[in-house]
Amino acid sequence: MKTVGILAADQKWSTMLSGDLEAMGCHIAGWVNPLVSDQRETDRLIDASDLVWIPENLDGGFADISRVIRKSRHVSLGFPVSDFIDEAQCLLDLAREARVQIQAGYSERHLPVYRSIRSYLDHPQHIQIIHQPGLLSSANPEREAVLAVFADLDLAIGLVGSTVKKVRPHATWYGGSLLSQIDARIEFFNGLVINLIINTDEAPPTRQFFVRQHNGVILLDLLNNTSRFTRYIRHDERWHREEATLWPPDPSGDTKEDTLPERIAANQCLRLIHSLQQGQEVHSGLEESFQALRLTRQIEKALYC
Predict the structure, then answer these.
(1) What is the pTM of this model?
(2) Which end of the chain has the smaller Cβ count within 10 Å, N or C?
């Protein structure tokens, strides 16, 4: 893994990557705006690259992604699989045939606060997700709620390490037409259970993941950008509780830069490159995000049953 090509409308993306790539022994093969460049220029860039980064969803994006895959190049996408739902299965099949990796772009998986809990996972038994998005738009509140379901499941599945056994979705309505709540119980073959609650009432926004396992509870609070681990230890025939802050490492520090969309997208691409260099499993590959998408569709059907 030596060269990275960039397909984007703005040259700022190459500036964001260049320094970090050099530290990894890589360099940028070039940057092309596929919206204004002819196909031959795009093809030349792909041919000169080991990996192609597409940080933003452009018109004709599916054609660009499939062209990269057919040329047996790895792809890092800076946008989520929900942006190309109808083409996801086709891209997955192409990637398997070409034996390349597609990194799906649900960038929240690359937030430091999310990554901070991964090394503390020890055979989780239960994940509870409580999500109150706040006031939804009146234009299409059901669609917004479904996208919230996908966002949460995409993060949760990254913590599971198993396939789905059973899904039990349910929806609650006011007067039969105003969506109040979506909840789902998702059972996995390894015994883990996810309980998801999306509450659309006008309550204060909340988005928390409680991961329960044999040695304690991990709390991931995405709105407050914090995480902590409550560990339970049995000693002298009594249970003792220990609290540890996982993120931020310095509570007085400024972590706003970690949540900037451009920085998250760049870090995502860099992590894919590192994984490929080390021969490691790709974090947030298209396979996992597609699993979250299939689950979301099953839950969405419950809205209209």
Answers:
(1) 0.82
(2) C
